[in-house]
Amino acid sequence: MRAYRFGIAWSASARAVVDHYREPLNELNGFPVPDHDTGSNLAHTLRTLTEKFDRGMEELLFEDPADREDVPGLAHLWVRLGGIYERAIVSASRMARGNSGTLLCAWGLEAVRSYWGLPGNLAQELGPEAEKLPLLSALARDEERVRAAHAAASGSGDLEAPRGFDYAVAEARAMACAAERVRASVGEQMVPSTMLSVMVELASLGLYYPEGENAPEKPAHGADEPEAGEPGARGADGAKAEDAEGAETPLNRARRAAMLRALERTAEHPPAPHLAGSVDAGALGFYLAVVHANPRWEGATLSEEEVRSMLTPASAAPAQVAPVPGAKTPAEEGESGWELMGTLRCEPLAMAQLRLELEGMGDSLLITPLDMAAGLWAVHVHVPEVEPARRIVTSYGEWSDERISSLADGHHAESCR
Prior knowledge:
- Helix content is 50%, strand content 8%.
- The protein is of the alpha+beta class.
């Protein structure tokens, strides 16, 4: 029931937290274009996700046991929960807005598929080659080191897992696969500058297993969430009460430091020179939705003062910054005037060719596999003109769920195909 309770708690909290900070996130937004809609795009995407998720949970509660598949008891519940998470994120992907909403869904979909072992996950797609990806390679080294240290300390001589360790590895692996999925879409150069900075940091095993301590029977994140009115519970606005216990544990300090490091890195390595010194709005919005709103990170999140300080754009650039190579200035960004999003049904080989055509036509191209078996993809791209891009996309397959917004002012088209 822990995964069920977590889903309900996170669903409400993520939506409330992002709504609470929506306007400041909009004002902070400056990349890939300063259209001031990051907070609104995340809020819209989360609204779709949480509504679908809540409906799935209601269906699960009132499910007739006679309709269950041939999977006993809690195992059935676990399988059903994975499907509910996946379907909710797929639905949100088909209605997501902006780079921020699209990347949040791409990350979440891969995390769920990897954690539950669902079809279409990165390891299944790449096979043995997946283990060569940077984050998965680093995780394997960390896992081996912890197992060896535990064996040496226990005197057993074997690499039997410490208590709760396998749970921690499973979660860190899901985070690593999700970050690698997004990295493949946006490119290595975006890692220190955007929400990828937070995604990569979340893939560290040290954030899920407290090395050097007596680890609990369950993973560090897996304690039961507090009930309403108890210490650590969240109010309707997403704000957290004081955590009565464990607020300054080594694990919580490590988690808080990692998130600070990830967010501050985006200010030190801005995606464009004019953003030097400002935390990336997408990275901060992603942190607020995924980490700050996460009941399992109670006591490890940033303070209100820290969040508010990051929501304030820098008044002047630091003396030395390292902008992303090839990044555009606001004037140059004006070349791409429209954001085109939608769902395309086509074969994988056709999608590979379409990717090349869209890369030559625009930028900020994001393609997320929603259902590989059905050939269903979420497509997001910035283009100078909508109609030429639409003609190319529709020539490859069935196009639906179209959303269009102006990159000049963030205005969204009223009608969608």
